[in-house]
Every structure is written in structure tokens, then in C-alpha cells.
Amino acid sequence: MTESAEKIKKQFIDKGIEKGVEELTPEKIEKTINKILKSETGARFKAYVETCVHCGLCSEGCHYYLSHDKDPAFSPAGKVKQTIWEIVKTKGKVSPEFIKQACEIAFTECNLCKRCAMYCPFGIDVAYLMLTMRRICHMLGVVPQYICDTAHSHASTMNQMWVKDDEWIDSLIWQEEEAREEIPDLRIPLEKEGADIFYSVIGPEPKFRAQLIYQAAVIMNVAGADWTMPATPGWDNSDMCMFIGENEMMGRLKKSHFEAAMRLKVKRIVMGECGHAFRSVYDMGNRWLGWKMPPIPVIHALEFYHELLTQGKIKVAKKFDKAVTFHDPCNVVRGRGLHEMGREVTRAFTNELIEMHPNREQNLCCCAGGGVINCGPPFKMKRIDGDRIKAEQLFNAKSRGASTIIAPCHNCHGGLEDIVHHYGLGMDIKFLGDIIYECMEKPGASEG
Amino acid sequence: MVDLDAWDWEVDKRMIADLRQWKEQFEHIEEPCVSPDGEKIAAVVQSGEMEFSVCENGTVWESPFDKVWYLRYTPDGRLVGLVSDTGTWTVAVDGEAWEETYDFVWNTQFSEDGKNITVAAQSGMEYFAVTNGTPWENKFSFMTNLAISRDGNHSAASVQTISISEGDIWSFRKGCFSVAVDGEPWDTNFVNVWEMDISADGRHVAAEVRTTIYDFTIAVDGKTWPETFQAVWKPKFSPVTTSVTASVRKNGVWVLMRDGRQIWDRSFVQLWHHVYNADGTKIAAIVAPKYGRWTMALDGVPWSLTFGDLVTDAVISADGRRVGCVGKENGVYFIAVDGIRWNDTFDMAWKPVFSSDSAYVAAKVEKNGRYFLALNGKFLGHGFKSLWDPVFSPDGKKLLVRGIEDGPDKEQYHRKVIKVSDILG
Amino acid sequence: MHDLYAFVSGPLVWVAFIIFFGGSIYRLVSMAILAKKKDGVVFEYFNFKYALRSIFHWIIPFASTNWRLHPWMTIVTFAFHIGLIFTPVFLFAHIILIKESWDISWWAMPDGLADILTLVVIASCVFFFVRRQVLPEVKYLTSTSDYVILVLVALPFITGFWTYHQWPESTFMGILHILSGEVMLAVIPFTKLSHMLFFPITRGYMGSEFGGVRQAKDW
User: Are B204 and B237 in contact (CB under 8 A)?
Assistant: First the structure.
């Protein structure tokens, strides 16, 4: 282990990891690792491990590496070396202390953003290998406390935030009432069978960011969309179980989500501005359940806004008066190629879009995704230190005039807020929906 | 069950309501619902500034509410809505609110005969079920997955029996959830409890549980099956005995089990939503025989017809001879029965309905924003603005059609009884 | 010495080629079987159009962002791989041997070009060696076997160059050349050199996921 990794080990203490490791024995570790490697990994794992020629070309793909003065322990392959290679080489004969280190690396030093897959000439999927390591940690009961608690919430309530069934419905009814002050005939139609659109959000929206539901309701109503939201579990599209390697629960969550939509006989699911949830419904959870592609098309907010704009269902009333820059979230850009649609909508609603560099598929990660921000306060500084390069990238955009960052993803929001604050960048962060809501025409809105 | 013989099965078409009048009368009308026998249509209407009521066949409920939602008909044709007044919530049946009020009510469920109405309720941050205004004696800090027996005399739900503070992942793993049956929790706690089923006689409850964060199984009346699995889906009681079936994941594939023993001889990439015929001798289920291909299996034998996008709405005829479903391939929906896909494609299709003798099967379908009936593979070209599931007469020879017809100057809800033979010619 | 020469240039050639081809087929087939059994997704989502789209962006110098980020590495690695593959295949001396044995032949490159390419390969190996020593992110990943492989690859070219130019002990060097070439060929399927076999598959699969499912570029 390098010196830098040693430092980190001393700095960050997580009770979930510490207590989990206390329960471990070398025998249990060996048995669990071999069971997972044998029963759950196959050709991809083998090819990725054996094909890597140790060239180090992946390094520049990783924001942690770039932010830690090119410390090789933070390069993608460097992290694989400290985790997967070692368990393969030793055939699972590793110490509890090793698992502790490996857990911390897999959970808090990789956002699974897959940028490195575009830097490795072989297309080795380090995110997959890190997820495999997380899966092993989960099976060993060594998971950071905060994200573990979130996974328990998912399992118990089918949402991320321990939101109870009635609290969900109540918050929708409340938002509907609020929004009716602005648009008198607005509705948030609950359980409307046969609607065109099933609108789904993530757990934090009803809990902390209810205004996003309000804004979505306004956009839906102005656009004349035929939409609905469920009054049952399945409303939450988020998925931290996916990020701790608890695949069984990932499957249950996605089943609940898709079946809520299927029960309501909708044509498609439109989801709010969340990245990881998109990944979960688009190419992770559905696959675990046996659906090659999502059984019902899943439209991310960026694509939906683009559709509403190009079909003339929403119109620009005024341009957002500050220069903006557009942050491309990994899961909907590398994950779904929505970068141009996002930009088209941004350009329509703003006076000036100043690109950050690199951008689009090459954009640097927010360092919050992949469940890292969900590992909570113990690792907050690790995220911020691990993304100094993002601060530089944003500062560069700011120096060219951008004062507002559009980040169409919840995790990106959280991560960028911390970065902007810590590095004193003094930039605003907004969802694209915030800007649309502020600048769109709202026929039927009451005066004032 | 509801006595279908008592319904009006005269071949006839009657206009029940002229919805254009409603639209003139009220500021706003929500999507309507219709009674099972088709005699009534109702919708939540805005009757004044922040004041809501329900209009049924043109008659408005006497007293308005601050809010009405989840308006549904019971199988015996009573109109039930969840209503609030001055910040409290309750259930209103045909305009009469229950005397008891709660901080919130939701998840309305009806017994098969419609006599019993159960809802989930919360008061003072305590959770419980309420049947016909009578709450469980015990209240819980958390409750979900409410289920009721066929006769509605019993209700059960996943409940939290041991409170834990947020972030206490260690207590969570010891098991803090159980099943409460009519408010009485089982003796055993589990890490989690999900969907459940109540036996036909109402005396037993089976639920999906996990005993550790890694071990999933089925618990019946608090006692788990001997084996644990990688995952399980909702168990079901046989309609006639107390045996329990559930699909479980073993070695990465899904198999169907009865009382802990595998019954179908093959495994599937996915296996869920199994359904019994009336006497419990046949079981059909939605299965994926290979990754990304979906179909129905009857007693473990999958159709050769498969769909790539999804299969949903599994249905088996009462005699167990026929199986139907809704399938989707390349973005378009189909009805499939007995392994044969009907020719027409749809933008959406609803669960097929079998006649009691299983000779006929009908379904509601959608095309280009209009709703149609399809019968035995034949697509009926008469489109509706809205349509509800078709209902066969007890002898299976007639079909009750409940639909809203519209034109440039009309929007009328009709109740129509037609002869099946007239359609099929 | 003559017997040894006859052995390495006769039966051992067969052995080396059999191990190389047999081993390669074995590795690819066994990987495909394993994928079929455990990683069905690879077949489900593999898409030739997007696989090739990705592969082309990585086998053309400077066509991917990362190649552009590392111009020296890009130039050297492409020159190295071209030399590594083309020199032995189009070397006049090799073609003559094959013509003598089986009476088949093909275009041969001028010896001068072969000399240059050989020196390029040797120099590239030195570059890679230095790179592994000097660049922290590469050094961190490097294990002894990586150096061994570098030597295994360089050896046939060094000895071949030596023999061609009739430097001292060229007969011995000739034998060493044949032997080292055979060893290199034989170990390809079973060492990191197998990246030659798996490159089109791993890159192609990532290209398929990015192109076909994620609708994004991966270069």
C-alpha cells in the first residue's frame, strides 16, 4: 500500500466498515470471496483481469487520480490492483484489514462513472470490477454505515429515505395544493390508470426537495401531459442497493418500480433529473430481472424536456439572465448520450452557455455518484479532496463568465455543492428543471 | 362473489350519463370510474373554490370535502372515496363519511363480495388497518404491504415491531419487522417482510421474508420454510387448500415451489406472478425461459411464443384449460391466449377476461388514443373515448360493454349488453 | 549445433505454432463458453457495428482522446505493434524458409525496411521498459512478469537482427532467435500477451454497450 492510501486509512473512520471487519475471520473471507468469484463472475471478470497489460493509460480517466497529484494508488488500475488483483492472486486468502482497505477503495474512491472505460485501450470496465469488490464486501457484511442504512430503507420501504406510504401520498397532495396557488387547475393525478406518462422521482424529492415535484407538476400541466404518479411503493426510482452490490434487492426495487408503471398501464416512465436511478432502471436492475431493455421505455428528464421543447409543448417566456455552464452527469451522458439534448434545452432557455472543458462524454465526475455521497459525512472530505480537478474545471468555466452550473442529476448537485462551497467557487447550481420552471411560459397561471 | 345473475343482461344499450352536462356544471372533472354492473358512473368534481365532491349519474354527493381521491367502486357497486375535511381523513361510501377520522388513509381494498372495505390508516404517527370503520387494536410505527382475505374479514400487513433509530444498521439486521394479522403480530421477527397472501379460509397468512440480509424464504403463520433462497417472490395460497406456492431463486435461476418443495421440473431466468385456476389444480405463471424472452408457462411448460419487451396480466381460465396474457414486442402490445398471439397490435392492452366456460376471451385495448374491444382474436372497430374491462354474463353468451362514446357534440357514457354470437357472426 | 538447429527449426516450429494456434483457439473458445454460461450479457448486447466503431477508434493512432493525450506513447505503441506483427510475417528470410518447405510465398518487405522495423521494436521495448521504471502510475502496476514479457518480445528481434548482420556467434544467435521466437509465439495465449486475442472482444463489448445501449462514444 502506498503512503497516500495509508494516510486516508487513518483519516476516515466508518462504523459500518469497522464493526463489519470485527466480525470477519480469514476463513470466512476466503470462503465468501471464492463463492462469489466462482458463482457470480465469469468471462468478463476473467478477461478484464487477464487482459490488463498494466500500461497505466487509464490513469488520466480518473478524477481521483488527477486530483491527488497523480498518485498511482488512485488510478483505476491502481485501485483494481489493491482490490481485485490481490484477491485473485491470493485466491481469497486476505486479511480482515485488507477487506477494510478494499471496502474503502471500492466504495469511496471510485464513483463507477466509467470514464476510465473510455481511457483504457481495451475497454476494461473498472466500474464492474469495483462493483464486484463491493458485492464481496456486502456479502462479508462490510459496508459503510450510511449507504448500508439507505439500502435497508430501500428494502423496508421501497424508497431511499424511509418515507412511509402515507408520507409519500401526503407530500404529493401537499405539492398539488401549493401549485394550485400558482396554476389553479393544476393536478398531480394519483393512480390514473391508462395515463401516457408515469412520473417517478427519487426518495429525497418528497423528503427534502419537494419543490422539484412542484416544478415537475407545473411543467407537466403546462405541457398538457397526460401523466400520473402512483400512490403505492414503486414511486422511487433510486437504488443504493445497486451500489452496495445487493443485487437481489436491486431487482426487488426495480420490479416494484416497473410493476407500478405496468399496473397503471402507462406508455412510458418519465423520471426526474437523477443519474444513478436512470442507470438502475436502464441497464442494471432490469438486467438482473431478465429484461434485456426496460420493459417500459424510460425517458430521462433531459430527453423529456427536449421533447416538450421541440414539440412546442413548453415555450420560452424569458431567457435565464446569467451565463451558465452544463455539467454532463455520467449516467445520462456516458450512460445514455443525452448531452446534446440537454444543451439544446439549455441554449433555448439561457442567454449564454459557456462550456466547461472537458465536456460531454469526457466530462469529469462530480465525485458524488456511484453511491459515494451516500457513504455520508465520514467520507465528505474524501469526496471533496478527490475532486479538486473538478473545482479547477469549474473555475476555468467561471473565469470565462459562467456563474451558474446546470447539473441535471441529484448526486451531481450534492457533490458539486460541496465542491463549490469548499473551493470557494461562488457559483450557483441548478437543475435544468429549475431554469425551465423559471423561464417558461405559464398560460393559466394566476397573476403575481 | 357478486351475484352476476342479478345484473341486467337484456340485450340493450342505455345512456347512463351525458358527460357534457357535467362539464358545463363543474369547474373541473377528474377521470371517471364506473360500477361493475355498468349502471353508474362517477367522478371527483371540483364543486367550488378548493372544494371537491363526487358526481354520480349526475347527482352530486350532498356534502363536499376539502379533497377526494382514489374514487373506486366496490364489486357490489358502492362508491368509495378517500376524503378529507378540516385536516383529517376518512373513507366516504356513497357520500357518507365514516364517523372515525384519521390523520391519513390510503390503499383501499375490497372483499370479493364488496361488503368489506379495508384501508391503511395513520393517526398520531401510528399505523394500522381499518375495516368498515373499525381499526386494529394494535398500532405500529410502520406498516406497508396491506393484504386482505377474500371475504375481507381479515387483514394483514408488514409491520415494524421493534423501533430503531435511523442509521442503526446493526439492530436492523437482528430483525425488526413482522406480519400483523388483524393487528396481532407474529411471534417471529424478520429482517424484512414483503408481500403476503391470506388463505381462502382466512385463517393463514404466507409472506415473503428475509431472515438475514442474505437469506430469503417464505414464512407461513410465522414459521419459515426449511430452506432459504437467494430471493423469493410473493407466495400464494391454493384457492382450496392451505398449501402455499412461491417462486424462489436458487443457484441464479428461478423455480416454483409448493410448501418448500420444487414442483415444476424446470427452472427459468425469471418466474413470477403465478396464478391458480378455480379449483387449484392448475398453475400458470409469467416466465422468462431465456434472458430477455418472456412468455407464459402452464404447469411448468412454457409457450413457444415469446415476447421481448414484457409479459404482464397473466390470467388462467376458471377451468384451468386456457391461459392468457398481455405481451409486448418492439414497443407494441399484443394479446396472447394459449400460446397464440392475436393478429392486431395495440398501443396498450388490458388483462384478457375469460367467460366462465372459457369458450370466449375478451379484452380492452387501445389504438391511436381510442379504446376498443377485442374478442377471441377479433378486433372490434368501434372506438370509445373511454372503456372499461368487458364482463361476460354468467352463461358466457353475452358481454357487458361499459364505454364513453363521443363525437363533435356529445360525450355519453353507455351501458351496453351484446350477444357474443352477434360479434363473432 | 547442427542437430540443435535442425530441432529448433523443425519439430519445435511445429510445436510452437500448434501451441500458439491451439492455445489461442482454446482460450477464445473456453472464454466464449464461460461467457455463455456466466455472462450471457456479453452475447446479448454485443453489436458488431458498434464493436467495430469502437475498435477502429482505438486501432487508428490519435483517433481516441487518450491516444491524443499521450502522443509519444501512441506513436511508439503503434510503431511497435506494426513492427511486431509485420516484420516476422513479411521478412524475406522467413518467406524463403516457408517457400522451401511448402512452396508458398507472398510479398516480402525490403531488408532495409525490416531492419528499421526491427530496431523500432527493440527501441520500443526499451521505451516501455523505461516507461515502467519512470512513470509512477505505470511503475505502481508493474510486476516482474511484465519485464519478463518485455524481454520475451525483444529477444527474437535482437537475436534476429544480430544473426542477419552476421555479428559474432551468429549461428548460436540464429538458434536463439528461432527458439526465442517460438517461445514468444507459444506463450501468447497464456500470458498477458493474450491481450492480442482479447482486445477485439473487450473493446468490442465496451463499444457495443456504449454504442448500442448507452448511445454514447467510448473513445
Answer: yes
